[in-house]
Design goal:
globular; 18% helix; 7 strands; Aminopeptidase; binds coenzyme A; alpha+beta; 7-stranded mixed sheet; 122 residues
Length: 122
């Protein structure tokens, strides 16, 4: 990955806002040092990623994939798939993050990522 520390990740699960993972370029989370964020909604059967944004200056440096990896690690822990609707231009990005077209959807831009099944303890 091309990103360089220091950076910080804030994981907010506040009830009144949508849960958000925000990435900052320094250890101090100030607005003008924000690299990007992913906002999501947690349902009993899935997580919907509703907004994924990397600030223009920081795009194509690996931060978007890094954010998605954090969300995927969380979804893996909860054993929930992540679903999203991609913009046309972002489709190659999501494919690189392991998303595929949702089954039985005619729309190419409806995507899903599935967690690996956890092994049952013997
Ligand atoms: C789409 C977006 C989130 C990607 O974040 P990013 O930090 O630029 O992406 P990364 O640098 O982590 O890219 C990961 C991989 O995807 C590829 N990629 C990223 N954006 C791409 C694009 N628009 N077209 C083709 N490939 C793309 C990168 O080249 C990289 O490939 P590599 O690993 O082979 O080098 C970001 O560009 C963005 O916020 N765009 C504007 C808003 C937007 O479109 N959001 C998505 C809404 S659905």
């Amino acid at each position: 990955m091309k990103r360089k520390p220091p950076f910080c990740v804030i994981f907010k699960l506040k009830k009144k806002d949508l849960p958000t993972i925000t990435l900052y370029e320094s250890n101090t989370p100030v607005k003008d040092k924000m690299i990007g964020y992913v906002q999501f909604q947690i349902y009993p059967d899935r997580i919907d990623a509703v907004d994924v944004t990397i600030e223009p200056h920081f795009q194509k440096k690996g931060y978007g994939r890094f954010l998605m990896k954090i969300l995927q690690a969380y979804a893996q822990e909860l054993q929930l798939p992540i679903e999203l609707s991609s913009l046309d231009n972002a489709l190659p990005f999501y494919k690189k993050c392991g998303f595929t077209k949702k089954p039985r959807q005619s729309n190419n831009l409806e995507l899903i990522w599935r967690p690996k099944r956890k092994r049952k303890k013997k």
